[in-house]
Amino acid sequence: MTAALDDRPVLALETSCDETAVALYGAAGLIAHTLHSQIKLHAEYGGVVPELASRDHVSRILPLTRAVLTEAGLKPADLGGIAYTAGPGLIGALMVGAAAAAGLAAALDVPLIGIHHMEGHLLAPMLEMPAPAFPFVALLVSGGHTLLVEVQGIGQYTLLGESLDDAVGEAFDKTAKLLGLPYPGGPELARLAELGRAGVFRFPRPMTDRPGLDFSFSGLKTAVLTALPRDANAQTRADLARGFEDAVTETLAIKCARALDATGHRTLVVAGGVGANLRLRERLNVLAAKRKGQVFFPRKDFCTDNAAMIAYAGWMRRSEGLPAVQGFPTRARWPLTELQAVSA
After folding, report:
1. I want to staple 266 with a disulfide (CB 3.0 to 4.6 A). Which of 47, 89, 237, 293 is the partner?
2. Which residues, listed in sequence order, are joined to residue 81 by a DSSP beta bridge?
3. Domain membership flag for residue 85
4. Is the pLDDT assigned to residue 300 strictly greater than 50?
5. Alpha carbon distance 280, 164 (integer Å)
6. CB within 8 Å of 20: residues ≥ 6 apart
7. Structural contact between residues 49 and 79, judged by C-beta atoms closer than 8 angstroms
8. Could you tell me if 293 and 199 lie in one domain?
9. Residue 155 near residue 302 (C-beta atoms within 8 A)
10. Does the CA dihedral 185-191-194-197 come out positive or negative?
11. 3-state secondary structure of 88
12. pLDDT of residue 326
């Protein structure tokens, strides 16, 4: 790979679930990014329909790619690499992005870089200033994952704890459905919780009464269901939402404190869709201040699925000269700890 090629920006495609996203990242940072959400498409079903998601990605991916290149004032020939989300995610959705990326990389004769979706989330705070410095503890909280990870560098990850059942975002969505809230439920529950009164309902802080860094959230939604009156009025539903949110955020804060203690690190990075939750941010900011440490979050637009984080991860991995992928592999399940380390 020549030095001139190294200076060319990386184009990234993200199609792991129900957002089609494209971004460009170069030596000066993030150049351009765009995203199309499928929320309206899936709303009538109350959740993501994989086949519909894949079909929508097919129709969106190339127009969005053209739009990003136009915004940046670049041509395909100006690109030095193509990154794509290789997993984990919905396999059909992943294959759309992978096939498009492989076609572009082959046509342009540039490296093809498969990126782990959760590594993208983990590195999303690197898009902000100031960026966190290695090493740190990362809390990855989304609809499909709840992980605590020790991060020594890019690709140098040690799993500290994970959810044994529902991911925290999944628990938010399922509890929102119990409360009669529309799809997507997590943000709606957080908005309703703002109207709730603290302490009216106190739910368990699961697995905090024993050692360890694993999580369990499935029982919380059962606790909400048990406490939900058949004739619950608006205030009662808001109080239930507040009680649920308080239980989740306190549980996450307790586990983060334990992870920092176990590793000796003072820096915490939070990423994933639930990282946009305001009450969680408040609790973790208080935690960091008490410990004289630091906590870093991506901007809210980069908490949920996006291509900017994939472009950054692709830029870093291509800059290290790691081998381009052959074919266009995708993995619906993919442990973060299997990734190849980057020395930078």
Report:
1. 293
2. 10
3. yes
4. yes
5. 21
6. 14, 35, 36, 38, 56, 57, 60, 61, 64
7. no
8. yes
9. no
10. negative
11. coil
12. 73
Q: What is the pLDDT of residues 237-277, one digit of tens each?
A: 999 999 999 999 999 999 999 999 999 999 999 999 999 99
Tally of domains in the chain: 2
CA 217, CA 209: separation in Å to the nearest integer? 14
Q: Which domain holds residue 180?
A: 133-297
Alpha helices by DSSP H, the chain? 3-6, 39-43, 50-72, 91-108, 117-123, 168-178, 185-193, 218-227, 234-263, 278-290, 308-319
DSSP 180-234: TPPSSHHHHHHHHHTTSPTTSS----TT-SSSSS-B--HHHHHHHHHH--TT--H
- Is the same domain home to 222 and 323? no
CATH number for the domain harbouring residue 243: 3.30.420.40
Q: Is residue 128 part of a domain?
A: no
Q: Token match 């205030």: residue?
A: 235
In this prediction, residue 225 carries a pLDDT of 96
pLDDT digits (tens, 9 = 90+) for 109-161: 999 999 999 999 999 999 999 999 999 999 999 988 999 999 999 999 999 99
Whether omega for the bond prior to residue 184 falls within 30 degrees of 0, making it cis, is yes
Asked if residue 161 belongs to a domain, the reply is yes
